[in-house]
Amino acid sequence: MVRLTFSPETVDAFDELYTLFEQHIQARPGCRMVRAMKVPGHSCQRATLSFWETQEDLDAYRQSTLFGEVWPATKALFAAPPEAQSYELTGDVSGAIFEA
After folding, report:
1. Domain range for residue 22?
2. Which 3-state string (H, E, C) describes the chain?
3. For residue range 27-58, what is the model confidence (pLDDT) as tens digits?
4. Residue 50 near residue 99 (C-beta atoms within 8 A)
5. Single pTM value for the model
6. Beta strand 2-6 with 31-39: parallel, antiparallel or unpaired?
7. Number of domains present in the structure of the chain
8. pLDDT value at position 76?
9. Contact (Cβ atoms closer than 8 angstroms) between residue 50 and residue 34
10. CATH code of 61's domain
11. What pLDDT score was predicted for residue 56?
12. Cβ 48 vs Cβ 34: under 8 Å
C-alpha cells in the first residue's frame, strides 16, 4: 500500500494518470489486483493497493518500462514523499505479496 499526497493543483492529474495506466499495471505478470483509493478526510491524498503473486513479480514490475513511465510521472505530482508498506498474506493465499 502506498499513501500519496498531492497538492490541490495536481490531485486530479494523478487521478487521470492512474486511470490511464491501471489496466496496464493489472495486466503485468503476477499482479492479482491494483486499485487507487481516496483517503477519507484528505481530499489531496490517495492510496494505492496492489496484490502480487511473488516478490519477484513486484520487483519485475518495478524494473519494467511501464514502471519507468508511471513512477516518474506520478512522482512529479507529489506534494510530500510517499509512504509505502508491504505485507505478506497469511492463510490460504500462500506467497502473495500485498503492497499497501
Report:
1. 2-99
2. CEEEEECCCCHHHHHHHHHHHHHHHHCCCCEEEEEEEEECCEEEEEEEEEEECCHHHHHHHHCCHHHHHHHHHHHCCEEEEEEECEEECCCCCCCCEEEC
3. 999 999 999 999 999 999 999 999 999 999 99
4. yes
5. 0.83
6. unpaired
7. 1
8. 97
9. yes
10. 3.30.70.100
11. 95
12. yes
